[in-house]
């Protein structure tokens, strides 16, 4: 693969007083670079490129360019000359305050536009609203019984609604709300700034309150619980539809069977959420907590029910090899809200049942425990919640064990970042890698909260840089933003209208190339993992979107105080 001289920057911008890194290929290290005014080309800062780093996922030497000490607001570009005399110029470099207001608003607005079963009115873009969809009762699989399960958010590029995905998205958004330190929502606080105020003033009919938006999802989740406490895994049609608008999918809806992972995620998510509505709607808060307790009782009285699609259903499975991490998370949330020590002992019993198992040489990912924040490994949420309530835990050894565990995980991530060509946490590039980057940033930020060590914080910031342009594809992976943005996401409304809905985080590179478009167009090129991305409507393995990728980006941006 030819190594070209090229520059990569965060295409949204850099906070005035924060660290500022760009990246370059085609340099040997030690070359001078210039930061120049976009207005007149005047050189305002000079620096030297760092020694190159090569890792497996980038597959080429990459130099870091540090201009953190420059703190004057404006629009600039970086210029560099290689030792062979070739020159390169970067995309615009924005430095200042308020740079993230519009993108942050749009990432949140996506959730409103993804509402199911309700008329949505798009007063920002005047394009993405839709009539109520999927409003007919759904049949419970294996029966003739029909149930009304209207509501919730469309999950991803398709129109299914899945409990495990919903639970993660809700957790991220509520934690983002907390990080916003405002009375009603992170968005409300930012409405003082023009980029968001403009959109908020255009319609009083749409609420941009995070708690109001999350409540819409929670009300749907409540409908997915059986009277005995078990929670149905998902509701969808039997098969994925083509590229059509949501109101045009008219096939029969089917509710898939109860699963342990859905039930446990539901218990943890609703228990955590209950506190947020106590003052504004005590009855709703109580209904959330009661539903969580009922789900936990079901889990403790039933054998594991791991989900696998019934033969007639081919929509997203969201299967799992274990429900241990979900149960652990549920225990943590229930302990946080009740203070009952039995949840601590039960959580540690569940945790140890996995940690003590030997490695599986045939399937190395099975029987593995890590402090993850993805939909398939939610132990990180559990550990974070336990450590929030560490003063209430009677056993000091539990607190020490959990602290050591999450810091050990964060240290591994930090080591990867320090050795990575583009400063990412990625050592393998799986489906949804941009979401994984943000989930791992969450881990780093928990470690920062526990220790105050700025290395964790700065490593988390580098993940945002990567997603927003500091990557070998020179792409801002959020639709509608950046000099080089994703234009053709695997998202049915976007494909149908021939235009990308702004504010969606693409899943990004996937070295597995699981879809036909990626295999056909990228397979013969033998690219490094981080280059395994194609901006194509059909590439669901490299360019789909999902509620839980947007939600994790919202959380990290809130926690880093980018808005």
Please describe what this structure looks like.
The protein has 563 residues and is an alpha+beta fold. It has 17 helices and 14 strands. The strands form 3 sheets. Strands 2, 4, 5, 7, 8 and 9 form a 6-stranded mixed β-sheet that branches. The two termini are 39 Å apart. About 5% of the residues have low confidence.
Query: What structural class do you assign from the helix and strand content?
Result: alpha+beta
Q: Unreliable stretches, pLDDT < 50, 5 or more residues? A: 181-207
**How many DSSP H or I helices?**
17
Largest sheet: 6 strands, mixed
How many extended strands? 14
Q: Into which percentage range does the β-strand content fall?
A: 5-15%
Q: Quick one: overall form?
A: globular
The Cα radius of gyration reads: 23 Å
Task: Report the span from N to C terminus.
Answer: 39 Å
Helix content: 25-40%
Give the overall pLDDT as a whole number. Answer: 94
Descriptive terms for the model:
17 helices; six-stranded mixed sheet; five-stranded mixed sheet; alpha+beta; about 575 residues
Quick overview:
The chain is α+β, with helices and mostly antiparallel strands and 563 residues long.
Per-chain topology:
Blueprint: E1 6-8, E2 14-15, E3 21-25, E4 32-37, E5 43-48, E6 62-66, E7 74-81, E8 87-89, E9 93-96, H1 101-113, E10 138-140, E11 146-147, E12 161-162, H2 163-180, H3 186-190, H4 194-201, H5 210-223, E13 234-237, E14 253-255, H6 260-274, H7 282-300, H8 324-338, H9 342-355, H10 379-388, H11 396-419, H12 433-451, H13 454-467, H14 492-497, H15 516-522, H16 540-543, H17 547-559
Parallel strand pairs: 2-9, 10-14
Antiparallel strand pairs: 1-3, 3-6, 4-5, 4-7, 7-8, 7-9, 10-11, 12-13, 13-14
């Amino acid at each position: 693969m030819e190594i070209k001289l090229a520059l990569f920057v965060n295409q949204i911008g850099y906070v005035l007083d924060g660290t500022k890194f760009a990246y370059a290929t085609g340099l040997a290290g030690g070359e001078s670079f210039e930061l120049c005014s976009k207005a007149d080309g005047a050189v305002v800062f000079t620096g030297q490129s760092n020694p190159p780093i090569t890792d497996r996922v980038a597959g080429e030497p990459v130099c870091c360019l540090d201009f953190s000490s420059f703190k004057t607001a404006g629009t600039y570009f970086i210029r560099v000359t290689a030792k062979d005399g070739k020159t390169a110029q970067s995309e615009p470099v924005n430095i200042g305050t308020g740079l993230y207001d519009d993108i942050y608003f749009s990432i949140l607005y996506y959730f409103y536009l993804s509402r199911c079963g309700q008329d949505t009115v798009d007063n920002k873009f005047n394009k993405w609203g839709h009539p109520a969809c999927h409003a007919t009762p759904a049949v419970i699989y294996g029966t003739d019984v029909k149930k009304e399960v209207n509501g919730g958010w469309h999950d991803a590029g398709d129109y299914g609604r899945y409990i495990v995905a919903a639970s993660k998205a809700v957790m991220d958004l509520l934690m983002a709300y907390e990080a916003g330190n405002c009375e009603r929502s992170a968005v409300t606080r930012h409405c003082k700034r023009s980029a968001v105020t403009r959109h908020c003033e255009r319609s009083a009919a749409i609420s941009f309150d995070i708690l109001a938006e999350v409540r819409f999802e929670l009300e749907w989740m409540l409908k997915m619980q059986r009277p005995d406490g078990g929670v149905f895994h998902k509701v969808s049609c039997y098969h994925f539809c083509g590229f059509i608008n949501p109101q045009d999918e008219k096939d029969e809806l089917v509710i898939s069977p109860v699963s342990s992972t859905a039930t446990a995620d539901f218990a943890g998510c609703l228990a955590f959420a209950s506190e947020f509505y106590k003052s504004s709607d005590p009855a709703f808060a109580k209904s959330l907590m009661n539903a969580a307790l009922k789900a936990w009782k079901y889990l403790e009285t039933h054998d594991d029910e791991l989900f696998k699609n019934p033969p007639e259903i081919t929509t997203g499975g969201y299967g799992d090899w274990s429900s241990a991490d979900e149960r652990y998370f549920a225990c943590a949330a229930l302990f946080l809200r009740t203070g009952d020590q039995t949840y601590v002992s039960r959580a540690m019993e569940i945790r140890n049942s996995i940690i003590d198992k030997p490695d599986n040489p045939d399937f190395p990912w099975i029987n593995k425990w890590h402090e993850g924040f993805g939909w398939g490994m939610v132990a990180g949420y559990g550990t974070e919640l336990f450590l929030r309530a560490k003063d209430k835990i009677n056993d000091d050894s539990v607190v020490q064990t959990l602290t050591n565990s999450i810091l050990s995980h964060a240290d591994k991530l930090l080591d990867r970042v320090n050795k990575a060509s583009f400063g990412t946490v990625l050592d393998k590039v799986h489906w949804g890698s941009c979401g994984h980057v943000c989930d791992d940033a969450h881990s780093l930020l928990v470690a920062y909260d526990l220790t105050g060590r700025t290395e964790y914080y700065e490593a988390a910031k580098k993940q945002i840089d990567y997603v927003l342009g500091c990557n070998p594809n020179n792409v801002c992976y959020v639709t509608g933003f950046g000099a080089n943005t994703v234009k053709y996401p695997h998202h049915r409304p976007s494909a149908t209208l021939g235009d990308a809905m702004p504010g969606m985080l693409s899943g990004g590179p996937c070295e597995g190339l699981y879809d036909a478009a990626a295999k056909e167009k990228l397979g013969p090129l033998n690219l490094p993992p981080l280059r395994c991305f194609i901006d194509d409507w059909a590439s669901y393995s490299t360019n789909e979107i999902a509620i839980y990728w947007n939600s994790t980006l919202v959380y990290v941006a809130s926690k880093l105080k980018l808005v």
